[in-house]
Write a structure and sequence with these properties.
The complex is a heterodimer. By secondary structure, chain A is an all-alpha fold. Chain A has one domain: NADH-ubiquinone/plastoquinone oxidoreductase chain 6, subunit NuoJ (Four Helix Bundle (Hemerythrin (Met), subunit A), Up-down Bundle), CATH 1.20.120. In chain A, helix 1 runs antiparallel to helix 2. Chain B has 13 helices and two strands, in the order αααββαααααααααα. Chain B is mainly alpha-helical. Chain B is globular and about 60 Å long. The longest helix of chain B is centred in the first third of the chain and has 36 residues. Chain B has one domain. The model of chain B has no long low-confidence stretch (mean pLDDT 82). Classes of the chains: A mainly alpha, B mainly alpha. Chains A and B meet through helix 2 and helix 3 of A and helix 4, helix 5 and helix 6 of B.
């Protein structure tokens, strides 16, 4: 086993462990911190795939903005973030079973995919990967439509947030 | 991925030098701040410990080590201890992508002065800056103290708001240089520094960066009159000094980034013939930028909290969006 594979196994297990901890903690802030670890693990996996851009964006958007907003919301809305005594409800067992079944069937399906065991090829591009990515996002032969759809959706969310937060007349 | 031993040693040596430079820089920035503040306020400042008071930081450090460490009874212990560590780590690693000079020839190897040169350096800077909020928020939350909590909430809101303007100010040097690598941005400033092409971006960047490191006039998280000491009210001894260390190292780091983006980085006269001048020029620029920060602290009063947010969202952000837009249009129209 190469050192890189060892690192991969370690990071992958740490990510899964942290993700498991997120859904089993009784304390909301602790759960959010484990979520940060899980997201960071994904960023490390991106680095190992030589996707530096995705890795820094993962840290910037998910850890630097979304997770911090979650912690912020928890701090603002709950005076007492102490342990919630019971985090399960009566469907918990069934949901767990469905999750395990779904995950194992995904693993079985993925294992039959021919390139499941293939090693990642080194990126053979003479151009800067960022330039490639940027052109792909806006070129008509690339991903311009998904890119524009996503931006329209974000714009709608932004306007929606403004409408929700706007002070109403007569109140 | 094959890593040769010599390269590994080179990285370890360079990282050690960088960390030592930041730690020494931290100690002497506190001294610099106290002496310069004293000068501006027509006082003398610390001048008794060693020649000209040069041993003052060492004395302060020793004093802090021997102080008693208190942990409040109702604090969330694990997070309480984690928070100072999370404050220092981003301050230490953010400098990894900032080059300190060209390449020198040593032991028959070409050694670049600077830890690494990645093609997403600017985004790396932004993402490390964005995770530095955690230390402050968690410190405020885990202390179980309302002043600390208020300080933590204020600082997270402030840092998240000013990060937007900071990010947009980062875009302008990228547009001008056509690259996100800091080495190429410095190379593009061979003729004229970007601060002369883009004074507005430089100003927005400097203001947002003051807010990002919680310096006066944006030091709301630690406004003494309202919040005692804000998020680090409950911290004492070495844990307190870790916060202090994080803040001063961040001051040095953002000054170095400012110098790199707008003041030509390590470039200066004769730097091509004598590459070792590079770190010296960078040091000078950082020194001047730190001096300006201290001068601002000595001169300007603190902003009221609502005005601070209004300034960030209603003036700074539209201004930086407009600036990015105009710059982009000019570059496209004139084909620069």
């Amino acid at each position: 086993m190469t050192p890189i594979q060892l690192v991969f196994l370690f990071v992958a297990f740490a990510t899964l462990w942290a993700a498991f901890m997120v859904v089993t903690r009784n304390n909301l802030v602790h759960a959010a911190l484990f979520l940060v670890i899980a997201l960071f693990g994904v960023a490390v996996l991106f680095v190992m795939l030589e996707a530096g851009f995705l890795a820094v964006i993962q840290v910037l958007v998910y850890i630097g903005a979304i997770a911090i907003l979650m912690i912020f919301a928890v701090m603002l809305t709950r005076g007492d973030v102490d342990d919630i005594p019971d985090i399960t409800n009566r469907y918990a067992g069934w949901v767990g079973l469905v999750a395990v079944l779904f995950f194992s069937s995904l693993v079985i399906l993925m294992a039959q995919w021919p390139s499941f065991t293939a090693l990642a090829k080194p990126i053979l591009s003479s151009r800067d990967t960022i330039v490639e990515l940027g052109t792909a996002l806006v070129s008509p032969n690339g991903y311009v439509i998904p890119f524009e759809v996503a931006s329209v959706m974000l714009l709608a969310a932004l306007i929606g947030a403004l409408v929700v937060a706007r002070p109403r007349k007569g109140k | 991925m094959q890593i040769e031993t010599a390269l590994l040693i080179e990285w370890v040596v360079k990282s050690t030098i960088l960390i030592f430079a930041l730690l020494t820089g931290f100690a002497y920035t506190t001294f610099y701040e106290r002496r310069l503040l004293a000068l501006i306020q027509v006082r003398i400042g610390p001048n008794r410990t060693g020649p000209f008071g040069f041993l003052q930081p060492a004395a302060d450090g020793l004093k802090l080590i021997f102080k008693e460490e208190l942990i409040p009874a109702n604090a969330y212990k694990f997070v309480f201890i984690l928070a100072p560590i999370l404050t220092v780590i981003p301050a230490l690693i953010i400098m990894a992508v900032v080059p300190w000079g060209g390449a020198i020839e040593l032991f028959g190897r070409q050694i670049a002065l600077g830890l690494t040169d990645i093609n997403v350096a600017i985004l790396y800077l932004l993402s490390v800056a964005s995770i530095s909020v955690y230390g402050i928020v968690l410190a405020g939350w885990s202390s179980d103290n309302k002043y600390a909590m208020m300080g933590g909430l204020r600082s997270s809101a402030q840092m998240l708001s000013y990060e937007l303007s900071l990010g947009l100010a980062f875009v302008v040097p990228i547009l001008l240089a056509g690259s996100m690598s800091l080495n190429q941005i410095i190379e593009a400033q061979r003729g004229v520094w970007f601060i002369f092409y883009q004074p507005i971006a430089a100003l927005v960047f400097y203001i947002a960066m003051l807010a990002e490191v919680n310096r006066a006039p944006f030091d709301m998280p630690e406004a003494e009159q309202e919040l005692t000491a804000g998020y680090h009210t409950e911290y004492s001894g070495m844990k307190f000094s870790l916060f202090f260390m994080g803040e001063y190292m961040k001051m040095i780091a953002v000054s170095a980034i400012f110098a790199t983006l707008f003041l030509g980085g390590y470039r200066g006269p004769f730097v091509d013939t004598y590459p070792l001048l590079g770190p010296l020029y960078l040091f000078l620029k950082v020194f001047l930028s730190l001096g300006l920060m201290i001068w601002i602290r000595a001169t300007l009063p603190r902003l009221r909290y609502d005005r601070l947010m209004a300034f960030g969202w209603k003036i700074l952000l539209p201004l930086s969006i407009l600036n990015v837009f105009v710059t982009a249009v000019i570059i496209v129209v004139f084909g620069l």
